[in-house]
Amino acid sequence: MSKTIGINLGSHIITVYIEGQGIVLREPNAVAVDAHTREVVACGQDAINLFNKTPGAIELISHIYHGNVSDYERMAMVMKKIFEKISVKRPDVIFTVHGGHSSSDISAISTMMMDAGAKRISVVELPGVAVMGAGLPLNNNKALLLCDIGAATTEIGIVKGCATKLSHTIPYGCNLLDEALKNYIKSEFGISVTERTARKIREAVGSVHPDYNAGEYAFIGKDTVTGLPCESVITSDDTREVMVKFADYLVANIKAVIEKLPEQVVKDIKDRGILLTGGGALDGGIGVFLEEKLDIDIKIAENPIECSVKGLGMIIENKALFHPLILELSND
Ligand SMILES: Nc1ncnc2c1ncn2[C@@H]1O[C@H](COP(=O)(O)OP(=O)(O)OP(=O)(O)O)[C@@H](O)[C@H]1O
Ligand SMILES: [Mg+2]
Question: How confident is the model at residue 331 (pLDDT cuts 50, 70, 90)?
């Protein structure tokens, strides 16, 4: 019998769970191309390592745009690498899908996984999986709003028990914030930084609420006038103006989803609150910010980045119990 593996196909990190073994792999979802020939030279962590070693000669390419795969050929290379690394022969694969995935996106991803070596493919909807992975009780029959803030997208879902009742994707994610921070640093500091530096700054001191103040962070960039390397310091207060603008967009989208819900579901959410998962849940002050703007309790999952893959793991280890959540797409 073949083993089942769970894959959370994140724009930033792909995480893999193997039946009976647990989380075995976290691979950056990256492809490195030669800056001149545009040929792919490395995938996954190797791509990041190569880029760090020879930054001028290598470009890191993202092939997931707004949560959807934009370049299947490159994505397939990353998948092949992952299958090689885990060395599980012809696994049954379950992967998470979100509301923004069309049926043709899902079938293209499935084909890509079959090409990479999968035997059978099934999918589960992300919101319910993330709630499971956060360790929330599954016997509560009141609905809960899940907000999974990723690198490229945010999933706003309604979950009852572990069943996904609604799954809606919006183009909000940490990448947007990094881009905005990069532009802010250029205009306010006269320093050009990479998106990677912007990400490090956000992770270290980024703040969306005055209650969160992580002090200052020294960074290196290039003077926009002289082009020479230079160093400067940025504070949590500096980052807030930019980050709040985007967090407001998130609030507007959550409100828009809530407005369309039946009265009883809104009541449930007011009682149970909103669960935040995904890496963006770690942005400084995001919980307090959302709580104040929405007047609903916010709970940030413990280890929010791993909720989806942990939930996948729970499903894989208890397939008979969670069978209704699994949609089988292909048979060998
Ligand atoms: N301590 C931290 N503070 C703020 N952000 C963080 C922190 N740690 C990780 N992140 C952010 O989490 C993001 C990755 O989150 P996650 O793994 O949920 O995304 P993903 O699943 O790959 O993306 P998507 O769901 O959009 O496809 C990165 O952009 C990273 O900067
Ligand atoms: Mg994600």
Answer: low
Phi, psi of 222 (to 5 degrees): -120, 130
Q: Which of 203, 283, 289 for mutating ligand 1's site (highest number of atoms within 8 Å of CB)?
A: 203
Q: Does domain 136-300 have CATH number 3.30.420.40?
A: yes
Q: Is the Cβ atom of 195 under 6 angstroms away from ligand 1?
A: no
Ligand 1 mean position, distance from CA 128 (Å): 19
Residues within 5 Å of ion ligand 2 by Cβ? 10, 150
Residue whose C-alpha is closest to residue 303's, from 15, 6, 3, 65: 15
Closest CA to 60 of 112, 109, 111, 11: 11
Q: For ligand 1, atom 21, name the residue with the nearest CA.
A: 10
In the reported structure, the alpha carbon of residue 157 is separated from the centroid of ligand 2 by a whole-number distance in angstroms of 13
Domain boundary assignment for the chain: 4-125+307-330, 136-300
Among 167, 76, 91, 92, CA closest to 125: 167
**127 pocket-lining for ligand 1 (C-beta < 6 Å):** no
Nearest ligand to the C-alpha atom of residue 301: 1
Average pLDDT over residues 61-67: 61
Residue 84 pLDDT grade (very low, low, confident, very high; cuts 50, 70, 90): confident
Q: Which atom of ligand 1 is nearest to the CA of 149?
A: 18
Q: What is the pLDDT of residue 88?
A: 87
pLDDT digits (tens, 9 = 90+) for 13-59: 999 999 999 999 998 888 888 888 888 888 888 888 998 888 788 88
- Mean residue pLDDT across the chain: 92
Gap from CA of 195 to ligand 1 centroid (Å):
14
Q: Which pLDDT score is estimated for 29? A: 85
Residue range 84-104: average pLDDT? 89
Examine domains 4-125+307-330 and 136-300 and report if their fold is the same.
Answer: yes
Reported as type and span, the H/E element at residue 251 is helix 236-259
Q: What is the per-residue pLDDT for 63? A: 60
What is the dotted CATH code of the domain comprising 4-125+307-330?
3.30.420.40
How far, CA to CA in Å, does 246 sit from each of 65, 168, 270, 298?
A: 18, 18, 24, 18
